[in-house]
Amino acid sequence: ETGVTQTPRHLVMGMTNKKSLKCEQHLGHNAMYWYKQSAKKPLELMFVYNFKEQTENNSVPSRFSPECPNSSHLFLHLHTLQPEDSALYLCASSQGLAGNEQFFGPGTRLTVL
Amino acid sequence: GNSVTQMEGPVTLSEEAFLTINCTYTATGYPSLFWYVQYPGEGLQLLLKATKADDKGSNKGFEATYRKETTSFHLEKGSVQVSDSAVYFCALRGAAGNKLTFGGGTRVLVKP
């Protein structure tokens, strides 16, 4: 595997389900990001991790819970989501936070019924 | 705060036509500017960037010039191909940190 991978690529879940999105980067980076891409809205930054420590939470509801066990892996745990949370969730990574290019994964298309 | 405004799509054009996607921004200080491209079913890829005024970013036949006087970073390509069909995002990164602010994206459809 190369670059940034995300699993699953597609996920359908009910509002009472608990699921997790996984992101893995194979680039040796130490910063990782979660973005939300909704229809007809700009890409929204959700969370930023640097060296496994969360450095930014962009006022994201607590039904989204990120986890970064190491610099290569990032999870987004989902619990009691709403239909309006349906979107494409993109993971990205970069070498540090000091203005280096972010590399994006292909995203997980989430549908909440 | 920072913001990016880009033209709404979809933009539909024929192969070999000239493409322009307008992008303007609001930011304090001297941001870096980017164009990302998202092909169907894929994540975003960096297309080109410019880090200071009057810089021109270029890649794959695409160009954009950082115009501080008009706070713009318009994307252009002289002759598009069907394979250029994608969604294009203009973005900026403020002078401090690594937070990217994106525009809403412009879908481009090139027909043979």
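Chain B has a mean pLDDT of 93.
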